[in-house]
Amino acid sequence: MNLLNRAIVAALPVVPRRLVERIAQRYVAGEALEQALDTVQTLNAEGCKATLDVLGEDVARSEETERTVAEYLRALDGIASRRLDSNISVKLTALGLKIDPEHCRREFARIVGGTQHHGNFVRIDMEDSSVTEVTIRIFEEARERYAGVGLVLQAYLRRSLDDARRAAGLRANVRVCKGIYVEPALIAFQGREEIRDNYSSLVDRLLEEGCFVGIATHDPVLVRRALATIARLRLPREAYEFQMLLGVAGELRRQLVSAGHRLRVYVPYGEAWETYSMRRLKENPAIAGHVVKGLFRRELRLRGRRLQGE
Ligand code: FDA
Fold first, then answer.
1. 200: which of 7, 55, 70, 159 is 20 to 30 A away, CA to CA?
2. Which segments of the chain does DSSP mark as H helices, in order?
3. Residue 244 Cα, ligand 1 centroid: separation in angstroms?
4. Residues of the chain whose pLDDT is less than 50?
């Protein structure tokens, strides 16, 4: 990490809202559903599928989940009425998982009901390790009733290969990602290469077992390894898809799409965009560097124009 980026990360808590907003424009579709649906439409026109995520996690009171569920149901209606190619991704803590798991189960069941009504698909995002087991259980319960429900496994967790065996028993639809939360060495691999190796083992195991796999990464090494496995197993395009975050790795995304692979873009939207953008920033401070440089360049241009009397 270079000096400027390091300084930016240290200063994150006091980053001006205007700067975060500029960063958010890259990673978040907007605050309103219509903006998110417009983004999905653009992605569809570029040959990408999408998954809509209503921003927000870790609610403090059970009553707060009502709005999130209503928003997901509106999103499912919007996808259907505009005939878009998109499913949805849901965080169970936004449905009250950490306050009351039973309430969360009921709220998730309402979302599954909406998904089923439209013949669509809902994936449960995976959050920090305190909720891994209960998230998998809720997935398994829902999967028994409806096939259009998917799970996420995180390659940094030591337990994930066992969870993959469990998922394979259900022929589950699994997204594999590296994992974004900070977890202790006791339960999580810490080294870049061991996380990569576990990632590839998970993808290989799940594909070999006939699971549909969402290969969620922007890491070219992992994409290359996954492509080698897909070729070795002679898998048809319908057996897997690549997945990437909105605003990240555009070039790799275009390469995969033009080579004929399915690719789904994760499209977050909603009022909680600030927290999400800060997380993306901490994850990749190089982006902050570009944004700051961009901002300065813009300021300089504006000043130059003012001096020229424009
Ligand atoms: P890595 O972090 O090594 O990135 C590879 C390269 O991609 C970087 O060198 C950089 O060029 C680029 N890049 C990566 N992140 C970037 C960023 N934020 N901004 C700009 N460039 C960036 N995690 C989780 O714990 N639970 C979940 O449910 C999900 N869900 C999910 C869905 C989808 C579709 C994706 C793509 C990712 C997730 N994640 C997640 C996040 C995931 O765990 C991981 O933190 C990020 O994808 C970054 O890991 P990479 O595999 O991309 O590798």
1. 55
2. 3-10, 17-27, 33-45, 65-81, 101-117, 132-145, 160-169, 192-208, 220-232, 250-258, 273-283, 285-307
3. 7
4. 294-295, 297-300, 302-303, 307, 309-310
